[in-house]
């Protein structure tokens, strides 16, 4: 059994002064949501048992920082800051999935939309379903695949186990 976690970066700041989209940071809400969503990841992931690939954009780095800030330098150095996860689409995400070493049963990809949504829909249904799931900023998805090897991942191989947004987490915490 392989478990894939897809994490869309938290809310970014469109009013910030940046030269290119890659450099756009999180806004105030995103900076508040990132630690909350990373707390959830911290509760379900073991750093030594999880392969992590992330877009190297400023907003994805800021999103995952609360998860990895207490990790050893060696473990932080093992994160694949993969430029192909920035704007390359589903094919780049599938390549990362298929190239994950089978010694890891968990894979966390931190990235962007529409790539996360397209990858989810492909893995669950085999094609794009025009928002089978709506992946808002800060959304965390958990998909399971009954596979022995990540290389086997493909169309219609995954089940969405759960999906959390910052809005849902905030409402649950209020109860």
TrEMBL record:
Gene3D superfamilies: Phosphoglycerate mutase-like. This is Phosphohistidine phosphatase. CDD domains: HP_PGM_like. PANTHER family: OS09G0287300 PROTEIN (PTHR47623). It comes from Cyclonatronum proteinivorum.
